[in-house]
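Run folding on both entries below.
>entry_1
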Amino acid sequence: MIQLEAMADLLKLLGDKTRLTIIALLKNREELCVCDIVECLHTTQPNVSQHLRKLKAADLVRESRRGQWVYYSLSLEDKPYLQRLIDELPPMEQPANTCCRDEA
């Protein structure tokens, strides 16, 4: 059973609209590149990377590298209490064309 303090920290992390939006984007996709997320959020790559770093540190997302591109996906297998919450998030508009997929 998860400790209340650890759960509070995770919920606080997800209390940020940008991070919650990233989670919502990832819930409907197997994985997304940073450039995909930048396009959807209309923000900068450093800003998205900073949020992803925090989500990765909390073990909510994982990354996989393919060439110069880093892809992110949800990592909620051991967090069913969060999975149920995330399942309730509204669908997000997904990126149409992305820079890394065009060059792959």
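>entry_2
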Amino acid sequence: MGTVSFLLIVVVLTALAFDFTNGFHDTANSMATSVATGALRPRVAVAVAGVLNLAGAFLSTAVAKTISGGIVNDSKVSLVMIFAGLVGALLWNLMTWLAGLPSSSSHALFGGLIGAVWVGAGGSAVQFGVIVEKIVIPAVLSPIVAGLVAVLATFLAYVITRRTAPDRARSGFRRGQVGSASLVALAHGTNDAQKTMGVITLALISAGVLPHGSGPPWWVVLTAGLAIALGTYMGGWRIIRTMGRGLTDIEAPQGFAAETSATAVILASSHMGFPLSTTQVCTGSILGAGLGRKLAEVRWGTAGRIALSWLLTLPAAAAVGGAAAWIADHGTLGVALVAAAAVGSATGFWALSRRHPVTADNVNELPAALPRHAENPAA
């Protein structure tokens, strides 16, 4: 068995830092619609999401095993490659968070790892068949499936309650949203927290600390769950605003339909071991909820920008991961340079975000990029 090296510790800490960004990047997946409809107060919403993400991390490890022994050949992967891939994913997460774009943290991670391993070990170390089967195909199909389910669920929600007094129906769906949003958060923990578990497990295997084919140890499950839960509690308000207010006008029945549709798709994928993008699922379900309500406005310009970020995520993170792997492969100095560049870039993104901060107090304001009359189509 291998020994615990300084580089291994750096890799584990970088993975947990990525997991933290994954948390605040994806808070919107579970809570954006509940915050937008007023079903949950913003601070309460992120606290609930954080607790349930932690709980979800303990429910399954199927996705973690797919990552640690599926998309790349773990026998050819080094700690430097894993470190570089994590840097690529982390920086893409921060860039899209700054822009308020709900891009996929999952695909950022996959892209960073693929680019780093490709540069460091060659194309033979990348399992392209597994990538197509368990990443690319689900990435294309999942938002479509979630959107179609949400269209039907939204339509049925309004049909079933058409004879109910509007205030009573709205109140009932808001209460229902507390449960449905909580289920999305739980499902998110079963899928996304495991991705970091898989990366840390891959690092432990590469360092010889664990044998090939091992699942994540209990302490990996715990720390990954805590990191994503803490990140979730931080809010990610910029993306919550985009998903809750920027895509469509969300009412309580739509929010409930979107959340239940997303939960069904995410839990099904977790059970089958597909490392699905929960961001794409939840965005697709919100768009479906917008299409499912008569006269609801869907802001296709915002949807188009989000779709473009989805297309760029894998190649962009792979390019950064590959470049980082090439630099980091030049020894300790190379690793130090990559680490310094990552810290400097992260600090810069944070400083830029302070120019126009989005907080729990202004998260339900319409995004500045949209005209004010878009808030009320009849205006």
